[in-house]
Amino acid sequence: MEIARSLAGNDDEVDGLCKRVLTELQDIMMKKPECSVQGIQLVIICRYLERFADHATNIGESVIYIATAERTELNN
To answer: Among 16, 65, 70, 76, which one is most buried in terms of CB atoms within 10 A?
Structure first.
């Protein structure tokens, strides 16, 4: 249960890292347009990793529900 509940904090950390990476990639692509193809690929990867963290949080919510029959919203 404790691990399932901790997923919300981990998801917030991933969200923050993703925002930071996207900002840095935007800056790089503006300064070096020749890096745009790689930058776009990295943006897509970043988005997938962020969604992966969201899904992990959803699994945590399911674990809590199975264990306690309590519906818990871990994503704010």
So the answer is: 65
